[in-house]
């Protein structure tokens, strides 16, 4: 039975203007130099079909608009009727959308549509699992810049659909001072002072620390966010105590769905996880004949 549930209804869909170039490029990659020679050889030009996108297992839906564009860019006659919206909690067998039109176009676009839908729903699903598990601790899961090349916007969208939050989108929207920046600059203090002098007053400054001594130095500089990298649970608890609300605390490094709860219990504000975007297991979704 389909469930019209959207737990993150405030997440607006990405505009077609943003996602259409991604879908076009992916279709072009698949079509190659001669198009879909299999479908053109087997399917008559006047054959029309009605198909359904169906979830093979439970999860969270994301990427519907990319699937829609994949079909409709192949043929303007294709009708894409969504039966569920992004953010819906899927059951095994849930019908996601009805797709009808020229059969050649439907079969040609099938893999592109499913690649986007399965991957982004997988991102939303694992994000939701972790977000749900730590919700009682007032802690959020956030993604990173560890995204699939050229898919950052849609993968970060899927994280939001799953109930997570986005870290910076690129190198230009926040300062994140990491260990190599500190090593090249000469000191953490010097790195922060240079950053503060160079960027505008609206740009936040985050510093990665891997020891409590570095934490104390960063706190003295009044940075906005502290990235607690690969710290033990005991170190995280002590770091949160020392921060005492003066900055946002963000844990990172080797986080798993199983360890996320223990990390959240230490009182950090956020848990950053890179693999939820680039390595999330896909959600199995198929295209079935009506």
From TrEMBL:
Assigned protein family: Belongs to the NadC/ModD family.
Q: Which organism is it from?
A: Oligella ureolytica
Q: What does this protein do?
A: Involved in the catabolism of quinolinic acid (QA).
GO molecular function: any one?
nicotinate-nucleotide diphosphorylase (carboxylating) activity
Report the residue ranges that make up the Quinolinate phosphoribosyl transferase N-terminal domain in this protein: 36-121
Q: Which GO terms describe its cellular component?
A: cytoplasm
Q: Name one Pfam family in it.
A: QRPTase_C
Please identify the protein, giving its name as recorded: Probable nicotinate-nucleotide pyrophosphorylase [carboxylating]
Q: Which UniProt keywords apply?
A: Glycosyltransferase, Pyridine nucleotide biosynthesis, Transferase
Where the record annotates domain Quinolinate phosphoribosyl transferase C-terminal, the positions are: 123-288
CDD domains hit by this protein: QPRTase
Q: In which pathway does it act?
A: Cofactor biosynthesis; NAD(+) biosynthesis; nicotinate D-ribonucleotide from quinolinate: step 1/1
User: In the Enzyme Commission scheme, what number(s) does this protein have?
Assistant: 2.4.2.19
Q: How does it assemble?
A: Hexamer formed by 3 homodimers.
A single GO BP term for this record reads: quinolinate catabolic process
Catalysed reactions listed for this entry? nicotinate beta-D-ribonucleotide + CO2 + diphosphate = quinolinate + 5-phospho-alpha-D-ribose 1-diphosphate + 2 H(+)
């Amino acid at each position: 039975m389909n469930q019209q549930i959207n737990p993150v209804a405030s997440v607006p869909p990405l505009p077609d203007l943003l996602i259409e170039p991604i879908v076009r490029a992916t279709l072009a990659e698949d079509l190659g130099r001669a198009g879909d020679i299999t479908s053109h050889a087997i399917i008559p030009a006047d054959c029309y079909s009605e198909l359904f996108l169906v979830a093979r297992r439970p999860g969270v839906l994301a990427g519907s608009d990319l699937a829609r564009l994949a079909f409709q860019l192949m043929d303007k006659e294709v009708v894409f009727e969504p039966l569920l919206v992004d953010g819906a909690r899927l059951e095994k067998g849930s019908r996601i959308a009805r797709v009808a039109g020229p059969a050649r176009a439907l079969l040609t676009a099938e893999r592109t549509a499913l690649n986007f839908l399965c991957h982004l729903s997988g991102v939303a699903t694992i994000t939701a699992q972790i977000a749900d598990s730590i919700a009682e601790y007032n802690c959020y899961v956030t993604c990173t810049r560890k995204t699939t090349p050229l898919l950052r916007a849609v993968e970060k969208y899927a994280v939001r659909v799953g109930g997570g939050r986005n870290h910076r989108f690129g190198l230009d929207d926040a300062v994140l001072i990491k260990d190599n920046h500190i090593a090249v600059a000469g000191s953490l203090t010097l790195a922060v002072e240079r950053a503060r002098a160079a960027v505008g007053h609206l740009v936040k400054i985050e510093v990665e620390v891997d020891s409590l001594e570095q934490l104390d130095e960063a706190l003295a500089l009044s940075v906005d966010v502290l990235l607690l990298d690969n710290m033990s649970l005991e170190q995280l608890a002590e770091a949160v105590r020392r921060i005492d609300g003066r900055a946002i605390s963000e844990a990172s490094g080797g986080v798993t769905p199983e360890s996320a709860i223990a990390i959240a219990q230490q009182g950090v504000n956020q848990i950053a996880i890179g693999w939820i975007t680039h390595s999330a297991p896909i959600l199995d979704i198929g295209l079935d004949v009506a």
